[in-house]
Design a protein that fits this description.
This protein has about 300 residues and is α+β, with helices and mostly antiparallel strands. Helices cover about 30% and strands about 35% of the residues. The chain is globular and about 55 Å long.
Length: about 300
């Protein structure tokens, strides 16, 4: 019988007590021995997952958003304890990339059938601390959107809260000057958005970095979007959606394992939708960092 710890975040958008009980019951009917615990503050998910590893649990399932998920995942790096994803937050970017159902009950049903897959993670070092991310980290306009979208708006409108903040700030879209080093090679870029991607979809399934971006290839993809106004931003998104790169494009792209980013003025940094300090920062890929329960192997 599989032993699993289910970590819930009561502050997440869709983790109501009734739904938590339904998720627990699905797992138990599937033959899992389940313990359910709730987070009460920052760092709890990391600590609870570490305790599950020490107790010899087979899996840690997180019912919450990306922030809670990555806190727990950071304690599973380098272990054989599987991570289960039960979407309960605003974005749930990793779950979307892995095509885990948005419905918590259906996601729980996936776990009990669970195929497992080893995934890379990115490690972000910024502002004297380090964090792991599964989908992407970035600096610039996207990080500012995360910073200026309140928890109350996310609870009320979900992903729509980010869209509302984007529309409010879009007239302030401006390039910053970045210096980027990728595996020892130097690049300079004027960019409104700089992203380091581990998964293909920054907003599943709408916005994709490209079909060659995979979370199990031992590489990270650096993407910059150049836009100094609203009209240039529209062109940058159009080039991004059409995968247009090269001369005349407002999108730049390079791949590597070790990335360092500096900026002329400090700008905010986000990872998987949560804030992670300010520039400068360094990112490295951690190949096969965690084992994740997924619907199917692509």
């Amino acid at each position: 019988m599989s032993r699993a710890l289910v970590i819930t975040n009561p502050a997440a958008a869709r983790t109501r007590p009734k739904t938590v009980r339904e998720v627990r019951d699905v797992l138990r009917r599937g033959g899992w021995q389940v313990e359910v615990v709730a987070t009460g503050g920052t760092g709890d998910a990391r600590r609870l997952a570490a305790e599950a590893v020490a107790a010899g649990m087979d899996a840690v399932a997180v019912f919450g958003g990306d922030g809670t998920t990555m806190q727990a995942a950071s304690s599973l790096v380098g272990t054989d304890v599987a991570l289960g994803l039960i979407p309960g937050g605003t974005g749930n970017l990793l779950a979307g990339n892995l095509r885990i159902p948005f419905s918590p009950v259906r996601a729980a049903e996936i776990l009990v059938r669970g195929l497992s897959r080893r995934l890379d993670l990115g490690r972000l070092d910024a502002s004297g601390d380090h964090h792991y991310f599964a989908v992407a980290c970035g600096a610039g306009f996207d990080a500012r959107i995360m910073a200026e979208t309140s928890s109350a708006l996310k609870q009320r409108w979900g992903v729509g809260a980010y869209i509302a903040t984007s529309l409010r700030l879009v007239n302030e879209l401006r390039n910053q000057r970045y210096h980027i080093r990728v595996d020892g090679v130097d690049y300079d870029a004027n960019a409104a958005v700089l992203l380091v991607a581990n998964c293909a979809e920054v907003l599943p399934p709408i916005l994709r970095f490209g079909d060659g971006v995979r979370p199990d290839d031992g590489l990270l993809d650096v993407v910059v979007l150049r836009a100094d106004s609203l009209s240039e931003g529209v062109h940058a998104i159009w080039h991004f959606l059409r995968r247009e790169e090269g001369p005349g494009s407002r999108v730049g792209h390079v791949r590597g394992r070790e990335i360092e980013v500096t900026c002329e003025v400090p700008v905010e940094v986000e990872m998987d939708g949560d804030l992670g300090g300010h520039t400068p920062f360094a990112v490295s890929v951690v190949p096969g960092a965690i084992r994740v329960l997924v619907p199917e192997l692509p």
